[in-house]
Design goal:
The complex is a heterodimer.
Chain A (H helix, E strand, L loop, with lengths): L8 E2 L11 E2 L8 H43 L15 H14 L1 H40 L1
Antiparallel strand pairs in A: 1-2
Helix pairs in contact in A: 1-3
Chain B lengths: L1 H7 L4 E2 L14 E4 H16 L14 H12 L7 E2 L7 H14 L23 E2 L7 H8 L2 H17 L6 H25 L1 H5 L8 H4 L4 H23 L1 H21 L6 H21 L4 H23 L2 H7 L4 H4 L1 H24 L6 H23 L2 H24 L9 H9 L10
Parallel strand pairs in B: 1-2, 2-3
Helix pairs in contact in B: 3-4, 6-7, 6-12, 6-18, 7-10, 7-11, 7-12, 10-11, 11-12, 12-13, 13-16, 13-18, 16-17, 17-18
Classes of the chains: A mainly alpha, B mainly alpha.
């Protein structure tokens, strides 16, 4: 992001986590409250990134393994004559999806709890910061009238 | 389904001319690869003097536009959306381009925190400033509140209102519709607020405003509050407390029960079906002020309709649901998924037959609606038997026109006790056999 910008910048989705990274603007006159908000957001971003990157990678890997094992059981190769990657149809993949979902259920429950907590805290902090800024602006206006 | 369609069919306007857009470009402008590359060459000659002319422009990978953007930013030119003509991922050319770019850049390259190539090119690949764009705001809020779904909800509520056996009160109707619409906007916004990381990971939902950072979570919550509170107030004070209570309960059910339950248990589908069934009940109570059998019947029809609709939709999304951690019948209990869809298609036939027994419609309603209901039941049966993508899609798309048509037929067969509404007149003509009973 350009140096003169006073805002956060959000980027394209990450390859592994599909989440969009945010570069946070650090104001030179950042108040402690604003700093808490920024740090909370940075931490949340890091947690989410870690979780989803790992999770998606595991999904991709296990999917490959599943396809490989199923193809082997059928006696087929990973690639057919034209060099295209052989895939299983949706019905065969359904077993994998069901399995993957149930295996990761506890992990998701934990993540959900954390995500809701983080989301509420960050939004609440955003509210406090917005209020503080509004009051500051009103005071400035009063002084400058 | 509907949303997927809409996303895939967004307008794409190609810019034939080869000028650089100097000012803030509107979202929908797309730039082709060819002329992007031309731009880069133009840049190279103007800024940096050490040229490395690219011999094969086609070998540009999508990663290069991003690096180019950093250069362009220095000159305060911003390109917002890039659409590659040949979305082919070629890692080898990527490294060669990277080397060339390094030669070209005079300033120290800032840390490249972003991402490589994606085959789907419909999303922006630029870094965007997280500042609220006021002229985009209506579009953003429309997407946040899922305006099309809201419109459907309001129309089911109006159907409930219209079917109530009382004289038609226009102001009450308008207030009830507005209140329901606002409540639905609020509920949808909160739903999106709760689901940001999950939406980012699913293809159907990854272009939502909160996911793309077009609006802050705080603003989304404020918007939801500013829709929900007036909406419910309007319903409670402008219509009647019962409708207001139903509206508030529905918002609660959707945001605090259905949304979290989506990730916990397959029972979420049943809760969601109730959420969909409540609006027509609200319409009925808005008109009559009480919960009669008629309200429950209408609610029952909507409830049953939700199952073929949603189960068919979820059949094609199994991979995304599995990866995203959503507990849906289509993933965990596929047999149950199809059975339930079929069961409820048949239930629709049964419910349509009950309608005249409750004096809501005449007996022509079950007769006329029978072919419609039989058709969707047939598709439901095909889905049950074949369990494949094409049958699920057929069932889903059928459900989209089945519901409005059913409600329309119901309305034309309505047993009117008093003077007909104008609408009824016009529609009655299209169904020659529809009879209206007039009491003296």
């Amino acid at each position: 992001p350009p140096a003169h910008s006073h805002n956060d910048w959000i980027g394209p989705p990450d390859k592994h986590s599909n989440l969009r990274p945010v570069i946070f603007y650090v104001s030179p006159e950042e108040s402690p409250l604003e700093r808490r908000l920024r740090e909370a957001r940075q931490e949340a971003q890091a947690c989410d990134q870690r979780f989803w990157a790992r999770h998606n990678r595991a999904f991709r890997q296990e999917k490959e393994e599943f396809i490989y094992s199923r193809l082997k059981a059928k006696g087929l190769e990973m690639r057919d004559e034209t060099g295209q990657k052989a895939t299983l149809n949706a019905e065969e993949m359904a077993d994998f999806y069901k399995d993957f979902l149930s295996k990761n259920f506890r992990k998701h429950m934990q993540y959900n709890r954390d995500w809701y907590k983080r989301n509420f805290t960050i939004t609440y902090l955003m509210g406090q910061v917005a209020l503080a800024r509004a009051l500051r602006w009103l005071r400035w206006k009063k002084n400058n009238v | 389904g509907l949303f997927v369609w809409h996303l895939k069919n967004t307008e794409i306007r190609q810019i034939p001319c080869r000028f650089v857009q100097l000012c803030h470009v509107a979202n929908d402008r797309l730039i082709t690869f060819q002329y992007f590359n031309f731009l880069k060459r133009m840049y190279v000659t103007q800024c940096n003097k050490d040229l490395s002319q690219r011999a094969k422009p086609k070998s540009d990978s999508v990663a290069s536009p991003f690096r180019e953007l950093q250069q362009l930013d220095q000159e305060k030119k911003v390109i917002h959306k890039i659409r590659p003509i040949s979305p082919v991922h070629q890692p080898l050319s990527e490294t060669s381009i990277r080397n060339e770019v390094r030669e070209m850049k005079s300033a120290a390259e800032t840390e490249d925190s972003v991402t490589p190539v994606r085959a789907e090119s419909k999303e922006d690949r630029q870094w965007k400033e997280m500042k609220l764009q006021l002229n985009d705001l209506p579009g953003i809020l429309a997407r946040l509140s899922k305006i099309k779904l809201t419109a459907l909800v309001v129309s089911t509520a109006s159907a409930g209102f219209a079917m109530a056996p009382v004289p038609f009160d226009l102001t009450c109707f308008l207030i009830a519709s507005l209140g329901t619409g606002l409540a639905s906007c609020a509920a949808n916004s909160i739903n999106q607020f709760f689901e940001v990381p999950f939406d980012s990971n699913m293809n159907r939902t990854k272009n939502r405003p909160l996911v793309r950072g077009q609006i802050s979570p705080l603003l989304a919550v404020c918007f939801a509050a500013s829709c929900g509170v007036p909406g419910i107030a309007l319903l409670t004070l402008g219509v009647n407390p019962l409708t207001g209570a139903l509206g508030a309960f529905n918002i609660f059910l959707y945001t605090c029960c259905y949304t979290p339950m989506k990730r916990m248990s397959i029972a979420n589908t049943w809760v969601g079906a109730v959420v969909g069934a409540i609006p027509p009940v609200m319409g009925w109570t808005a008109a009559t002020g009480s919960l009669d059998a008629g309200a429950l019947l209408l609610g029952g029809i909507l409830y049953s309709w939700q199952f073929p609709h949603f189960n068919a939709l979820s059949w094609g999304l199994r991979e995304d649901y599995s990866r995203g951690g959503y507990c849906m019948m289509s993933v965990t209990h596929p047999g149950l998924c199809r059975r339930v869809a079929l069961r409820h298609c048949l239930a629709l036939i049964g419910l349509s037959t009950v309608a005249p027994l409750l004096d809501i419609t005449t007996w022509t309603f079950p007769i006329i609606s029978l072919p419609i209901n039989l058709y969707i039941s047939y598709l439901g049966f095909r889905f049950y038997r074949d369990a494949d993508r094409s049958s699920s899609r057929k069932l889903f798309f059928c459900s989209l026109w089945h519901l409005p048509l059913l409600l329309l037929v119901m309305f034309t067969c309505k047993k009117s006790f008093l003077e007909k509404e104008d609408k009824g007149d016009l529609l009655g003509e299209s169904h020659g056999r529809a009879m209206e009973i007039r009491l003296p």
